Amino acid sequence: MPTKRLSLVHRFLLPLLAALLSAMAAPHAAAQPLLAPIEISPANAGPGVARQISVRMYWLIGCLPTATIVGSEIARKRTLTIYLDDRQGDVFRCSDLLIPHTSTVTYTPDAEGDLRILVLTNHGAFVGEATLSTRAANSNRSQFDLTGMWYDPATNGSGLTFVHGATRNDQVFGTWYVYDAQGMPRWYTIQNVTWSGGGLQAGGTLFETRANSIVCVPPYTGCPVALSSAGPAGLVSIVMQGPNNARITAISSNGGGTLTSNLIRSIF
User: What is the pLDDT, as a whole number, of residue 178?
Assistant: First the structure.
């Protein structure tokens, strides 16, 4: 091949090929993490302790990313978003060779709770997620988020729904769906929940609500209506046996009856 033609190949075709390889390899940077793509150090600590959040992945030489925490202070109370800026605006800087690289940011939680960590590239590609847990020594803050739907396989058709401010005030509101002696659906609510036992046990009040008689539009035998009364029907104890297993016990106000269910979380 003539010298002039070789010069054109080196000057134009090879850089273009390198750019194409870089563009093709870039998605793999977010798709080929090592064994521990997101690491938190220290893994457990109380409020006010600085935490190192490291993301270890394969990246292109010449386009190694910088990590930045983004979002408002309010948004960070629920989700801590980290951008990995790989600076691929000039693709000719990037090599077609992938190497392991660790990007690290520092974040200091100011309150107890679990915080979701979401890692994205500056192109919007999903990299991964993790949970940053902050608990003081001997804390009774909940260890698991109850939010979701739960049921006992032995009594499938009954169940509970919880809304839990696990990342905020740790308050819980639950609804327990059951049936009465005539087989008609009923429900109780669970309120005033407090945690103990290192965040694995909770106790609250079981409330029963009633409404005035109303004629619903046929064929419905039940319809939305404002309550006429609400009062305590007993006490509730919840023992967490893991993130997706729990045991709930209700004791009636007069101590004459006990309900117990071994719950598993519905996962969709």
Answer: 94
Strands (E), the chain: 38-41, 51-60, 66-70, 79-85, 98-107, 113-121, 126-134, 148-151, 159-164, 172-179, 185-196, 201-210, 229-242, 245-252, 258-265
Question: How far is 246 from 66, CA to CA, in rounded Å?
Answer: 42
Q: 6 vs 15, 17, 96, 250, CA distance in Å?
A: 13, 15, 21, 83
Domain boundaries, the chain: 3-134, 148-265
Q: Which residue has the higher pLDDT, 19 or 88?
A: 88
Rounded CA-CA distance 78/171 in Å is 15
Q: How far apart are CA 82 and CA 85, in angstroms?
A: 10
Rounded Cα gap, residues 243 and 35, in angstroms? 23
In sequence order, which residues have a C-beta less than 8 Å from that of residue 192 and are 6 or more positions away? 204, 205
CB atoms within 10 A of CB 258: 10
